[in-house]
Structure formats: structure tokens, C-alpha cells
Amino acid sequence: MKFDAAWLMDLLTGAPGADEVADRLTASGFLVELREEGDGGEVWDIETTTNRPDTMNHRGLAREAAVATGAKVRPLEFNLEETDESAADFASVEIADPTMCTRFCARVIKGVAPAESPEWMQRRLANAGVRPISAIVDVTNYVLSELGQPLHAYDLAKVGGAKLIARRAEAGERLVTLDGETRKLEAGMPVIADAYEVVGLGGIMGGADSEIGDDTVDVVLEAANFDALTVRRAARKLGMHTEASHRFERGADPDLPPLAIDYAAALIAEFTGGTVCEGRIDVRPRPYEAHQLQTTSEKVSRFMGLDVTMDRMAEIATGLELEPVVDGDTVTVTVPSFRVDLEREADLIEEFVRHIGFEAVPSQLPVLSTPPGRRNPNWELVDRARDAAVAGGLAETMNWSFIDPSADAMLDGTVLCPGPSIGLDNPLASTQAIMRRSLLPGLMTAVRDNLNQGERTIAIFEQGRVFWLADDGPAESERLALALVGSAPVGDGVVEFADLKGVVEGLLDRLGLPEVQWRRGGTPWLTEGQGAVLRTGGDRVIGCVGKVADSITKKWDIKTAVFAAELDLTLAAEEIPLQQFEELPRFPAVTADMTIEHSTSLDYAELTETVRGLAGDQVEAIDLVGRFAGKGLPSGSVRTTIRMTYRAGDRSLTQAEVNEQQEALRQGLSDRLGVSFA
Amino acid sequence: MGLERLEEVRSAFLADLDAAAGVLEAVERVRITYAGRKSGILLELTAALRELPNEAKRDYGRALNELKKLVESSLKEAKSHASSGGASKTADQVDVTLPGRTSPRGAEHPVHLVRRRIEEIFLRMGYDVESGPEIEDDWHNFEALNIPPDHPARDDQDTFYLPGGNVLRTHTSPVQARVMESRKPPIRIVVPGRVYRRDSDLRHSPMFHQIEGLVVDEGITVGNLKATLETFLHALFSDDLEVRLRPSYFPFTEPSAEVDISCIFCDMKGCGVCSGSGWIEILGSGMVDPRVFEAVGIDPERYTGFAFGLGLDRVAMLQYGIPDLRQLFAGDQRLTRQFE
After folding, report:
1. C-alpha distance from B332 to closest chain A C-alpha (Å)
2. ipTM (interface pTM)
3. Which class is A82-283 in CATH?
4. Half-sphere exposure of residue A673, counting CA atoms within 13 Å on the CB side?
5. B22 φ/ψ sector (left φ>0, alpha ψ -120 to 50, else beta)
6. Cα distance from B328 to chain A (closest Cα, Å)?
7. pLDDT in tens, A271-330
């Protein structure tokens, strides 16, 4: 919020220089963000927090500056002359609904002539960010800027029945506001009406029909207090935010209208040659009742970790106009009507902390009373996965948690899909409207963007959450997805399924997930015949791995082969056992190779499972040596060479024993699978 | 000729081998001199055996064998460790300036690098690292944190709404409320995580990351808050950093403080990063508001606490000099691979 520095300094007596005032304001909670040259002096842009509407004006801020610097605030002085004519004879005011308007003051000024406000006022207003318009409007803005009370001036001749009524709108009422917009009002919105129709939006903006113009002769001035929530709801519904609504929404001073309206009337009379009628109309259904707060210097000292004297506390409270009464260690304050933020003892303590200042508090680390810190299991899990992916040569990316509905629709019914999707009520863009149920759509976008940057080889991953609607509400799961494009990570070739599988196997190993089965599947995201679904020992499907289908890459306008995988870490975590030591073998192993010729319809998993079923318990491992297809073999046949590792727990095996077992195995495989041996 | 000669050769051999200094070509020359098949010294010594009287043959033969073994094993050893060298380049020499053969390297996103550094600092101070849901209910994201419906502070946090009254969490603070609901003090936690606000420009992204801290115990003071933040910021950036707490307002802390650090780019002289002020706003903090304690069932008369939060993306941008927040979420592997 913009302040005219000279105006602010002018309200203080006994203050230090402007630099010191700015520094002390910052140190007591009013950050002077920017000081720049304005018209005839500096303009300060100061951050006033939402809980302190009383400081959103020059005099309120000066009060804080005075306490912060030991200065005093100059009292407000003005000269109001009234005529013998009674205001009540020319206008009347009614509060029809005291829940929306708690106080309504009015004054009548007769015989005004069109005029401009004096130059000094125009300059101050301009520096405070307000455009000067005419003497009457400028005065209302000036009093707002000095005291914080929003005011409105009506052309008395245009107020039907010379009566102003504060009430709630009825559904369907309309008003053309000062900005020329036609507003359709909803029931309950705060309005000011005359005897016939709505003439203003209470606490937000006046109406165009009763606006002050060059032909205005008599003026009725309004200074009222409106309910914060009522103003806030109406302003939000109407999409309006004004100087007035900004203050009322945060809570304006209910006892300010009389002073503000007198000050404004005096200035208007001075600038326009008008005369102020006798008497201030003041409708107040319920007066403000000041409440009291109490705290002790012992409590403040303990809370701050600093010895605070009662003298200092009383000094601060006095400066803030809290009327402190000290009784030994206890101070009791009376909360003035402008301090809507002071509700509890904690609010009072804050005042002492603010003005004693954080810089005065000695730094003292808390004494440890807790055991050593530990990371919760979810962070352990995702960081383990992230480390594994990095060790696998992948670069981490972060992609949006919300995706395009058309991309989301492609997930329905796939193995990646955890359940129904959740849409945003108010997305920023239609392409970011659905919470992602899979990381792959976002990763495909990243692949495309990297290709467009000219990257030929891509090896990326993302670790993050997916979201869906479970039976009992929204659900989240941690996932990891990766994509490979271009050169294979190992060797000289282009990336193939085996490269992807190698990376994924590395991940699974580092996660410590045992016995994952690879089964054909993963369509329609993956190419038929080049995709696998991962199933755990506990029969959970935890992911899919393979070459992304053409129909998918086409959707992202990608013309090169993409190999991708996605793993559900939260599901997988259910089956990760604690790493256990196994006794080291005491006797040597004997290895023996076997080359099996078989149909391509027999996959490696089935072959090795059969071998394992037939082999005795001395078989420790079955490893792939190689697979050969082509020359010398009938089409549809391949040769697979496996290496068997035999070991006994109680002695060294002889070659003869192993040969015997190999022979029995060949016989068994031949009977069971109809394979032959090379 | 006799044992003395063997000893002489033995000493000479070891000296020559030593002088070869592990250079392959020099070792080879030593081999030819001593063990060469045509004119090696060992041949000469073997021939000398025949000339000896029978009674001396036994001792000489044994010593000769030992010498042969020594020469053989020493040469083998020296060759295996030898490198090419000298002025003449042969086929055995490699160009040591060629790039190495590597296995592919991966890289973690800078935001996670920063997160883990910060977690480590707090773990060492005895904090637990917690997490919570990104889809939150209104209670935990707002109401429990003293932000009732229609509170003006809701304007400051443009919120994404979801069906069923849920929101995408606008800060990591709801995890504070969740932990306090489920655990008795003393509490000492940090909560990193992804958060969302409906805002997008150079300095705002609808998705970003925060880390939140909370300490609750008997007798926690403003001085404890100040010391903790100073200790943390010194550990994160540098020990000679200045730290400034400015009173501010957050609904869930009272008093609240914005925390600035002296500008790490211009040494407080004023630059573009600090908008000429010499200070960089780095985190928000404060003493836990008693209303928050009441909402989560902790006795505000008995316990006090402090909380703080900062943007991980912002720290990453400051620390690595990344100018545009949105670059972090563009999925560009070239950015991440700078952190291999």
C-alpha cells in the first residue's frame, strides 16, 4: 500500500529522520518494500498485513511509527462550523438490518459550488495512489487515506425521499455502480437505498445515479460501518475489490464514522463554499463495547526468552492507545474500537514482541528432549527409488500433477489405472484439469519436449504421486516412471526392450523387491508383443514395462521409438522384506551348461520354471548364457543355452554326480516340453 | 667363478630393475641383459656350473636356481606394473587425455537435492521427516490452522478446489495439524512436499515445493525460534550470513515473522536479486497460535511451539542461480543433467 512519506512524517512530532522511521517500521512489522520519488517527496510502498486494517491509513501507520521511534502523533485539528438549519430537516437515515450495518452517520452540506481540491491535497492523494477528481470526491478519499474511514457523498437532490436506508438487497435488484457497470444483485448483499430504489452497494461502491456532479447543490455525506463478512461475500460474488471493501472486509473501526464525517464536512465546506447543517445524524443500534485483555511480564518474558520489564510493556501499551492499568506483575488493557485484531491474550503478547523487537531476543537453541530424528517410511521409499533410478543413469524430471482430460481418458481400463479420476473444479487451463492417475502421460510430454530441444538420446524418470477416487475418498500412491529413447545405455546399439528391462531390474534389485514375474501385457499403452506386466510374489500388479504403442506416441506427435516403464512404489513397498544375511557356502559349486532347442512359443520364464521344478535341491542358480536363432535352425525354433550351478551344503560335488543330474534333467525336459538338445 | 659372482649378479639385477623405474621398455632391456635366451647373463652362469668342482656344484646349483626364480618373478612383477613411457610412443601407450569409457550417469532434480540437504540439517538436530496427502480436506488445510471460511487470508492462497470439499493443499502446514492430532508433544518435525496454488507467472507456478518445520514442547520461546532459524540458514547457506526476523502476519502463528537473509549475491550492496534492498526474503515463521493448539487438542496453557516454512524451489533457484521457476517443471533433461 502506498503512503506519502511527507504526510506520514508531518503527522509525527519528535520523530527521527525518514530513514530511521522506515527502518523502525520494517522492524515492527510494516515492511517498507520500496521507497521511490513521488510528486514533491518520497512514496513508500508498505506491506500492511490483513489483520491490521487500522494501519491502512496515514494516521494509523503514524501511531505505529510513533511507538516504534518514541515519537508522538500530532492530534487531528479542524474547524467545523455549523449553520442553524438542522440536518434532520433535510435528510434521514435508517438501518433496516443491524447485522449488515452497525453504524450510519450522515451530514448535510448545502450550497456547494464545483471546485477542485487544493494542490497540496491533490499531491498527497496522487502519491497515495489515488487520482484527484473533484473537491468533494477528493475529500472523501483524503479522509479515507488519513483516517481509514470510507465515506460516500450523494447528491441530495437525487436521493429519493431524502432518505438513506441500509438494508440487504432483494434478489433481482439492479444498480449501475460508479464505474458504469450494471450490477445484478443477489439477495442478502449490503445496499443503501433511498425511499424508492437502491442507490449504492454498502461498503463497496456508490451508485451512478446519485453521483456528485457539477450541478450538485446540496450534498448528503455518509460514513458508516458495515459487517466484514457481508461485504466480503458480496464483493467476491460481484468480482469487485475497492478501497472501501478492502477495509470493511478486514474490519473497520465502528467508532470512527463521527470523527471522519465531521472532518470531511469541514474540508468540503472549506473547499466548495458550502455550509454544514447543524447536527450529525448518527444511527447506532448497538454501541461498541470495549473489552479488556490481561497478561503478565513474567509470561511475556518466558515466552520471548528475554527479561521484559513492566515499564517497557506499559510504555508500548500507552503508545498503542490501549490504556494500560498496571497492578504489580499484571497489565490490563482496554482494547480500542480500531484494534479489531486484539481478541485474546496471545494478540496482546504479540504487541509486546513486535515493539520490543526480534533483534532484542537472544538466540537460544531449544534443549533436545526427543530421540534422534528419523525419516518416515514413505520418504525412505521414494528416495531409495530415486537413488536407484539415478544409479541406473536416468535424469530426474518434474512434470505437472494435473493433465489433459484427453490424455487421462487414455488410461481408463489399463493396467496403470488405479481407479476413477479426480477433476479440478477450477483448473488454470483446460489442459491441466485432471489429477494424474499415471506418470506416463506427463513423461511422454517431457520426452516430446526434449526431442523438440534437439536431444537424440533421452533417459529420464519422474518420481511422484498419482491420484484417484477410491471408495472412501481421494487416494494417492507413490510411483516411479522412466523413459528411454535413442542410444542404448550400454553398448553401441539403439535402445531395445532388453535395455529397458536391465534398467528396471536394477531398480527392482535396489528396491529389494524379490521374485518379480514378467508377464506379457501392457496394451494398449505398450506395443503388442513388446510389453510386460510386473507381478509380485504376493500377486500384486506393480507396473508395466515395454515399448510404447504407436497409437500413444502418435498422440504426442513423437516419431521415434519410446521405451517406458511405470512402477507403483506404494504397492511394491508392501512386499519389500528386510535385507537378511545368508550363511556363506562352505563347499565349491560346479557349473554345467545345457543348450536347449525349442519353439519360440516357449518363453524363457516357462523354460526356467520347468527346469527349476525338475532339478533337485542342489541347483543353486540358473542363468542365461545366450540365445541363438537363425542359420541351421528351423524357423520358429531357437537355441537357449543356460548355465546350471550345483552346490551341496555338506560336501564337494563331483563332476560325475553333476553329469548324472544334467542327464536326468535333459530327459525330464524332453518328456515335459518336447524340446531337444544341441 | 662361484657364489660371490652369483651375489654380484643378484645385486646388479635388482639395481638395474630398480633403475628401470617401471617403464615397460626399460624393464624389457633388463630382461634381455639377464634372462635373454641368446646371451643373457643367466646362461653364462648356468654354463659356469659345469666348470665347477663336484663338491661345489651342489651349493652353487641351489643358489643359481634361487637367483633364476628371483629374476623370473621380479621381471614378471615389474612387467605387470609397468607403464609405457619415455619419448618414443609405441602401440602400448594410451592417450590419457581421451575421454573415459563410462557407464551412464543419472542425476537428481535440483529441488530434491535441496530438499535432502535441508532434511539432513534438521535430522542432525533431531527432527523427524514427515509426509502427508497432497489432496487435503478443508479442515487440515485451513480451519485447523485458524483460517475459517471467508477469512481474508484465503485470498492470499489461490486454491484449487476438488469435488467433495477437498483442495490441493496450498502449503505443507496441514501436515503440522495431522501430526499434532496424532502425537503428543514433544514434537520436532520437518515436512517437505509438493503444494499447489492457482497462480502462474515468472515467479509463481501452480505447483511448487515447500518444507515446513514444527517444534512443540513445554517452554519453547521466541529465542528458540530465532536460534533455530539462524542455525539452519547458516548451515544451508553460509556462517557469515545475516538473518533478520521481521514481524508479520500468518493466521496460524502469533507472533509471526518473515525471515530475510543478507543478499548472497551482492553482499548487501543491493542488486537485482534483492531488488536493491540487500535482503532476500527466505521464509515465514512464528510461534504456533494457541487456536491451532486448541483445534488439534493440545493444551495451549502447557505447551508452546514454533513453526516455519520455506519454498524449496526458491532455495534451488537461489543456490544454483536458476532464473525462471517454470524451468524447473519443464521436464528438460539438460537442466537436470547439469547436476550429474
Report:
1. 6
2. 0.87
3. alpha beta
4. 25
5. left
6. 7
7. 999 999 999 999 999 899 999 999 999 999 999 999 999 999 999 999 999 999 999 999
